[in-house]
Design a protein that fits this description.
Distance between the termini: 50 Å
Number of domains: 2
Bound molecules: nicotinamide-adenine-dinucleotide
CATH topology of the largest domain: Rossmann fold
Structural class: alpha/beta
CATH class of the largest domain: Alpha Beta
CATH architecture of the largest domain: 3-Layer(aba) Sandwich
Strand order of the largest sheet: 3-2-1-4-5-6-7-8
Helix content: 40-55%
Strand content: 5-15%
Low-confidence stretches: none
Order of helices and strands: EHEHHEEHEHEEHEHHHHH
Amino acid sequence: MAAPRVGVVGAGTMGTSLAQHLAQQGFDVILVDVDGAALKRSMETIETRLDQRLEKWAITEAEKRVILKRISPTLSLEAVAPAELVIEAVTEDLEVKKALFRQLDAQSSPEQLLASNTSTLSITELAAVTQHPERVLGLHFVNPVTEMPIVEIIRGLHTSEASVQRARTLMEKAAKVPVEVYESPGYVTTRLIMPLLNEAMYCVMEGVASPEDIDTAMRLGYRFRMGPLEMADRMGLDSVLVAMERLFREYGDVKFRPCPLLKKYVRAGNLGVKTGQGFFRYDEEGRRVDG
Ligand code: NAD
């Protein structure tokens, strides 16, 4: 049986991790980006991560080569035409994504499933620019996709049952555990995790406890793998702020009001792991240097 073929558009943080995961699961992946340097970086990152797995004896040299061969990086969006499913993971910008969906819709047969990995934008709104909104849905993965088994399958207003079922089958083949979600800002994962991270920041701001102690309390009290403040640092405090602002705007509920300390950190350029400083300090490899 031929390997399923999937197009991944956008070779940034999510596209890179997604392409690696799908290739590891035996999918053929067409990886597209508008930026040649991003594509090159993405393939180098995947190779480095596979080398790390090789060092841990998780894969062999031959398996590494096979996985890499399954990914075809390209600057051409037309290259995704033969794919059963296209998942876009481009910049979180409504206009950029709308333009992309228009183009994907125009160039492919209506049988091709079109999915967005957007964390905050409306699937219905993206689907509205296409001629076949019934084949448009959301597939929301959690970073790193190679390690987190969950995927939220999001129905837009016009997404068909057949499209949801086809996506479910493909996701199960990709060793993901799908949960079905009706379109709603933040779905389940973002809607629940963001207020927790935000509330931990209020605890810091109000002097309730130190960042270290807040994280220790949640790790040891609730078996969190990492505390909420380190989690926010790893997501990027700028991304957390964008998500909170959107939840606040969409629901109009004060429970989603971004913590002023979060805003202050972002304005200061303390974005977490990516700048080496957030609630904690990190080295170039993203390891804690103060813990
Ligand atoms: P990113 O900035 O790391 O990568 C975006 C990539 O898209 C860049 O390489 C850029 O060159 C490329 N791009 C932009 N416009 C393009 C176009 N028209 N065609 C092809 N490529 C294009 O972003 P990211 O963090 O990987 O996020 C991507 C998407 O995934 C967003 O919708 C985001 O909401 C969603 N998401 C992110 C996370 C996360 O933890 N980072 C988690 C879940 C979902």
